[in-house]
Amino acid sequence: MRVAIAGAGAVGRSIAGELLENGHEVLLIDKAPTAISVERVPMAEWLLADACEITSLDEAALQRCNVVIAATGDDKVNLVVSLLAKTEYGVPRVVARVNNPKNEWLFNEAWGVDVAVSTPRLMSALVEEAVSVGDLVRLLRFSHGDANLVELTLPEESALAGTQVGDVEWPEDTSLVTIIRGTRVMAPSLEDSLEAGDELLFVAAQAREEQLEDLLSARRGSTAG
């Protein structure tokens, strides 16, 4: 897979390193000469250019990329790169870094963004996830379909504890994708039983989040709505 990363700062270089280790082809783009540190990520391709300029993206052959990651520290730049990647070059997957949570509402399909990653929100979500049981925590937002990756730790008193996955009437537009039980990461089957303390990861429509939280947190003896 070929991946272009706009922004060769610490974030961009870190992402590039991970992708290269996984066998992908990576191009780092940055307009600042001081950011071009080939020795830090020697296996990557490097391009000294402004990723907001069509001529630069032509030189980067963006149309050959499977994924573009807008990882600069400037939200305006990340939005422009995302829009150009999607509309001018038809890149299948565009991932954008959100630096200021107040700008999250802009990072959507209209700007060419498939997945928006807000570092401040993700850090706060991970803090919430570590201390909350029974509360739904939003980890990641997907632009297409208005869906989110959410997590909930099943409380001890949940009415669903001991219930098989296939017997649960999940809300529409939700999908249980992973059960984390201790050190195990499980791809759930219909026969798997839910246990108190399980960390459950869902992809869910935002409109269904409250319904999903109510279902999972309902106490034994109460009616799940």
UniProtKB/TrEMBL annotation:
Residues 137-218 form the RCK C-terminal domain. It comes from Streptomyces ziwulingensis. It comes from the Bacteria. This is Trk system potassium uptake protein TrkA. InterPro entries: K_uptake_TrkA, NAD(P)-bd_dom_sf, RCK_C, RCK_C_sf, RCK_N, Trk_Ktr_HKT_K-transport. Pfam families: TrkA_C, TrkA_N. Residues 1-117 form the RCK N-terminal domain. Coiled coil: none annotated. Keywords: Ion transport, NAD, Potassium, Potassium transport, Transport.
